[in-house]
Amino acid sequence: MTTKDSRPKKTDSNRLHDSKYAGETTISKRAIQREMSVTLEDVAKKAGVSRSLTSLALRGDPGVRAERRDHILNVARELEYRPNIAARNLASIQTRTIGIIIGDLLNPFEAMLARHADAAARDAGYESVVSINGVTDSATLASARTLMDQRVAGIILIGTPKQSDIIEKIS
Prior knowledge:
- The chain is 50% helix and 9% strand.
- The protein is built from nine helices and three strands.
- It has helices spanning 12-15, 29-36, 40-47, 51-58, 66-78, 85-92, 108-123, 137-149, 164-170, and strands spanning 97-102, 127-131, 154-158.
- The radius of gyration is 24 Å and the shape is elongated.
- By secondary structure, the protein is mainly alpha-helical.
- It starts with 11 loop residues before the first helix and ends with a helix.
């Protein structure tokens, strides 16, 4: 005669709380959310300074004394603070992002141009977002509209259809 095991099944959400699973490296949604939810205010509070001073220190403003900046940076590292780029972009009205629409990533010349465009953007302090969807006019236009909705600072077209009406719509 067999008896049914009435113990609850172990799931990812309760493994972190069970000593039997203490050695496993299971990451729960809560742990990810907690890590991602460290805000500028959290850093400021733990450092014992204002939010504005924390912001200035994290941006490397020369008006912040070196010892204060070091303290704030250490706290930010300890809390594993990552800046909220979306919030920064809203506050500054600039995304510091360039869109690159490439027609054919398998074309070595186009891929090389995209790599160089990305490197040039980074050298100028920009990030790049690449869309590999520029094979047809409608796909190029759809990608460009998506990038414009993200408020990119500019769009680079590589190996995409060259019809002037599409380029006019993008610009």
